[in-house]
Design a protein that fits this description.
With about 100 residues, the chain is α+β, with helices and mostly antiparallel strands. The chain contains 3 helices and 2 strands; from the N terminus they run ααββα. Strand 1 and strand 2 form a beta hairpin.
């Protein structure tokens, strides 16, 4: 599933060079801010690793940032588990 999503994203970005540049800049900034650590997982055979799918959302009506990147932590892995499934749930502290 993850591979298919990456290929779909690559095809979309290759058809839209302006979007590809904006998207790449966003991802580069995200990495530079260390919000997206890149690690070699080959030595972590006992750790669980999740790759969170992401894609651009374009809103031409916005005056500031027309492209935002949306991450999908509810996407299921090959085991049928998502990142959201394994994160610790905390109680809601906001009033209804």
């Amino acid at each position: 599933m993850a591979v298919a999503m990456v290929h779909h994203l690559e095809r979309r970005l290759n058809r839209q060079p302006d979007l590809k540049e904006t998207y790449s800049n966003y991802i580069d900034e995200y990495k530079a801010l260390r919000h997206m650590p890149l690690t070699d997982t080959s030595d972590h055979s006992t750790d669980i690793t999740f790759y969170m799918p992401h894609h651009p959302v374009v809103k031409e009506s916005r005056t500031s940032t027309k492209v935002i990147v949306v991450f999908d932590a509810s996407a299921k892995s090959s085991s049928g588990t998502s990142l959201n499934d394994v994160l610790v749930a905390v109680p809601t502290i906001q009033q209804d």
